[in-house]
Each structure stands twice: as structure tokens, then as C-alpha cells.
Amino acid sequence: MALIKDGERVTNFLAFLGEEIGEAAANNVLQTAVNIFEKAPDIHSDEKVLGLLYGLIQSGKTNIINMAVALAADNDFKLFIVFTDRNNSLQDQTFERADEALSGMLVREIDELGTEDPEYIETVLETDGIVLICKKDSADLEKLITFLEGQDLSDIPALIADDEADAIGLDTHQRMEGEEPSPINQQLTNVRNMVSTQLYLQVTATPQSIILQNREEGGFYPEFIEVVEAGSGYTGIHTFFQEHADRHLRSVEIEEIKELANKNSDDEDITNIPVGLMEALSSFVIGVAIQMLNATERRQEQKFSFLCHISPYQTVHTRIKKLTKKFIADLYKALRKPQESEKRDFILSYLSSAYDDLKDTCPDIPLFPNVLKAISDNINSHEVIVLNAAPDSHSNIKLNKKFNFIIGGNKLGRGLTIPRLLVTYYGRVSTRPQVDTLMQHARMCGYRSNDLNVTRVFIPDDIADLFAEICEHDTIQRDIIKNHGMEGTLYLNSEILSPSRPNVIPKSVGAYKAGQSTFPKLPEYRESELEGVTEYINSKITPLENEKEILDVTIDFVSDIIERIPFQTSGGWHPEVIVKYLSWYKHQYSDEVMLIYTLDRNIGPAQSRNNQGTVIGSVLAPDIQGLVRTADVLKPLIVLIRNTGAKWDGVDFWIPWFRFPENDKNVLFNLYNQ
What we know:
Blueprint: H1 8-21, H2 23-37, E1 48-54, H3 61-74, E2 79-84, H4 88-101, E3 106-109, H5 118-126, E4 130-135, H6 138-149, E5 158-163, H7 183-194, E6 198-204, H8 208-211, E7 224-227, H9 237-243, H10 245-248, E8 249-251, H11 254-262, H12 275-294, E9 304-309, H13 314-336, H14 344-359, H15 368-378, E10 382-387, E11 403-408, E12 421-426, H16 435-440, E13 456-459, H17 461-484, E14 491-493, E15 509-512, E16 517-518, E17 522-523, H18 530-541, E18 551-554, H19 555-564, E19 567-569, H20 575-588, E20 592-601, E21 606-607, E22 614-615, H21 622-630, E23 637-643, E24 653-659, E25 666-670
Parallel strand pairs: 1-6, 1-7, 2-4, 2-5, 3-4, 5-6, 8-13, 9-11, 9-12, 10-11, 12-13, 20-23
Antiparallel strand pairs: 14-25, 15-25, 16-24, 17-19, 18-20, 21-22, 23-24
Helix pairs in contact: 1-2, 1-3, 2-3, 3-4, 6-7, 9-17, 12-14, 12-15, 13-14, 13-15, 19-20
């Protein structure tokens, strides 16, 4: 059946979205949803399809989810479940955006279903369909399962969108042999099993742990990946930490972060606020004033945000809140009653420095006195919001003021959209940082081009360097997936960063370290087609000159040979991984690799160390080892050895040896999926 792309719900949401983000961006959202839905099961089947939407931080993934729901509804899907993180703020935000976007559809948080008339729900399911927003915690998931158990779902096709799928829901017991799946994972599996026809869409900007999962029946390894590209006006981590770092990053001493995170004194004075935090707060109020004065459209919402994220601990959040309130109070007095303010000169010096700094990126900056007046006239419209797990914390972010100061910890780590975020003061320190966690902390990303001229990130240099490293990770991962698909996807990792938390990475994940060499422990020496393979490689090598010299050859030349050489025991030799790596290397760096070949060796079998059978102990003769040591360690190197087979079954066979470059990239891959 042909996919309906211009149904009533899609048309309504497209018009709504066009006004919000522009017609071109709205059409891109629709096209992404169409790409996803073209892989959905037929509504008359009992097929289940699991996919992954690989987005960008703050790139509008929620819009794509809502468009996918609208598209599914126009194509006779009836049940829509949107899973969110355990964060109440994120659930509320997801609900509000779905309720606004999906006009005419019944949108409910799972807690609200108990108040609905059962007959009404049954009728809605059979006609317009129902959209359920559910947090991924045990209590809410149990309510969802109970609701589904009470429905006849035999003819109800479903779209299930699992937002932040890598954060909560993967099996955290997978490294424990014999253990049952972790509770949330089991509940999500139960939901999937209850609906016969479904498209289950995992959604995240950090799919490291999902990609490294085992591909197995009933698991959470996706069958397809839709990679989201940045739209016009999007600013991502590359903008801040690579392309324009000098424009937007401002250095903060790491000792300042540690002092703020550890000090518990109640005797706070504005002159005791650390320099970096004082600079960040000053940059924010100056930036807000500039944007208000330069606003060309009166209807543009004048509500701006400052974010402080340095610690998960509530005592630290409380202290930062006190410091922020002290800053606002003394700032107001300095501007409104300058003759009575003892701190006026101190405050003005910071404001003046912030103004001078913003001149570099604001060619049309208003005069400094006008900026100060705008701050003075508007600073009373402010709120200091603490977002954490404390009982008195804000349950969600509703920015109703012009100056919104947001302070928090883990609740700021995923999914939440912070409108018009001008200044970020960031300093989360970890002894073993993770790529996915740090990326999710990058709340400064998003469609923020209109405010980029006054956007600043105050951050210690070492942490900024980690984000720059993460930019490389994301570029590499996207490139690999787009060019090679996800079968046996590689993840290029470094010693500095781990891809994800250890308990969601299977034991079957292996690694090639940068600079590591590998070869098959037991080549195939008795296969009936071995002679044909040997003859083919001979025909490739024979035209080459200079045996036992370092040659430059193309990656395609080498890959073709690596893929053909059979072996019995890998011993860590994974040709699929090496070929994928070389393909990435070709795209990223060069089409050339180094080759050394040698003919007519007489390598014999050896006994494995654990007496588990015959292997090859080593393949490089001393003269070849010496040659290898002279080769450029920053380039891939392949050595091909033709063994006479005299000590085996008498048939010549080729043995490959490969060395990865000594750069900062290790190669992670799932052995189970190769």
C-alpha cells in the first residue's frame, strides 16, 4: 500500500512546524519521518521492525518523533507510545510538545489513563488512535503494561518511540552470565511482545552503547539506522569546540570548579565569587541586554537562559543559587542606586570586560550605557531555577522571565531543551569520562544561530579538549554508518574516553589498539579452493616489483586480498573489521597504505600456549621485522607472506599481517556481529 505523505495530521503539523522553524526545516523533518516510515511493517502483518534514529544534540529529534506519529496516524496506525527518560521535566516537555503538535489526537501521560472512561479509550483506539507518554521507570511501565493487557491489540498497529534509548532500557545485566535481563529492559521487552504489529524506533544522539550491542533475536540491536543531518541554523559541538572555539569558549581554571564544588561556607559576598563564574554571569546579563536592544521583531520571545552545570550534588546547587542571587542583588543596586553601592566599581569592571569580549562577535553592539540601562530596566524579570532531585526543586523548566538562571546536575544531562541559552558555565569532572555522557551535557547545542553572536561557554581547558575529542568520535561514527551501514559497525575510541558505561557494553566487544598488529593464528591450508585463492593473490602480487621493500598501494588493492584469504582460527584476526577500518581511513585520510610482501617462506606449525591445537607462532622473519621497524607508524601497514606449505599439506598459501597506525584511535567492534 502506498505511503500517504500529505494526510490531515501531517499537513497540520507541517504548517505548525513551518511557522516555528521555517518551511525548509519543516520539510526536512517530514522527509526524515518518511525515510523512517518507509521501513515500517504493513499494518495487516504481524511484523515487528526495530530501528534507530541517530540525531544530533538538541537537533529537533522530538519534532521528528511527532512527525512520525502524525505520518503513522495518517497511515492507519492506532497506538503510539513515546518513552522518555525518568526525568519528570523531560516527560512533561515531551507531553506538551506532542499535545501541541498532534492536534485532534488524544495525548495522555500514562498516569492520566486511570481517569479515562474505558469505553472512550476503546473507541479512540479504534478510530483516531491514542498517544501515550510514559517514563521509563518501573512504576510507570507497569501501569502501561496493565493498560495494554486490558486492550484487544490484535488488529492495532503501533509506533513505539524510545527516546534516549541508550540511557535507560538496555540490559545492564548482560555482562553477568546466567542473569535475567535488567528490570526496565525486561519491561520494555514485555511491551514489545504485547503488540503484534509495530515499528519500534530507538531515538538518541549518542548511540554508542546501542551500536555495540549483540545482534540477537528479541534484542535491542536496530535493523536500520536513520542518520539525521544538521539543518540550516544548527550549532553543534563542532561549532563550539572545533570550528569556532576561539569565538565562543572562555577558559575557567579547574581549581575554581573544584572550589565551588567543595566549599560549603554560608558567608558569601560577591567579591568572593570566583573569577570565571563572575565573568560568566556578567557575560550573560550583557548578552541578554544586547539581544533585547537588537531585537527586530517585537513578537520574538525575550526569554533568555544561563546554565550552570558543575556537579550532581544538591549542596553545590544550593550554594551556586545563593551566589547567583547575591550577584543579581548587588548588580541591581549598583545600577539603580550607584551612590549607595559599595560594589559598583567591582561589578562594572566585570560588565565592561564582558562587553568588550562580546564586541568581537557583535559588530552592531549597542553603546555600553544603553546596555546597562537595558539590564537595569529588565533585571527584575528574573528567576533562579534549581533543577535536581530535591523535593523543592523545579519539576520542569518553564521559562517565564527575561533572565533565567538554571542550576543543576544530572537532570540537565539529557533531552531537555533550554530555549535561548546564551551562557553555559560547565565543569563536570570525571576520572573516566564517557563519550555519550559528555555529549548529552552539551545543552548549548541546537538551532541557536540567531543568538550565536552572544553565546559563550565557560569551561576548563582540559574538559574543552575532551569535547573536541568527542567531535572526532561523532564525525567518525557518522561517517562509518553512512558509508558502510551498521553491520559490524566500528567505533573508534581513544585511551582518554570510553564510549559508554561499562555495564551496557557486552563482553563480546573487542578492540584493536592504535599501533596493534594482528594476523590469523591458523590460516586455511587444506581447503579445496585454496589453490584458486593462492593463484589469484599471486596474479595480484606478481606484477609488483621490489620484494621485501615498502611499497605504496591502494586500499582497494589490499582490501580485496584481505577479504579473500581463508583461515581456520582467527586468534584476533577479524578481516571484516580491518576492511571497514581501511575504508574509513581512505575516506578520512588517504587511499594509500604501505605493503611489504615476501615469497616462498617455509613457516611451520607450532603448539598453542594452552595446548589447544596447532597455530602459527609468528610470521615475520628477522629481515622483515627490521623492514617493518622502518615503516611509517602513522600509516596502515600490511605484510603478505607466501608460505610454501611444505610443512602443511603441500599447497602454497598466503598469510596476512596487519598493523594499525599509531594514532589516537582505537577500534572497538562487536565480535558477535561480525
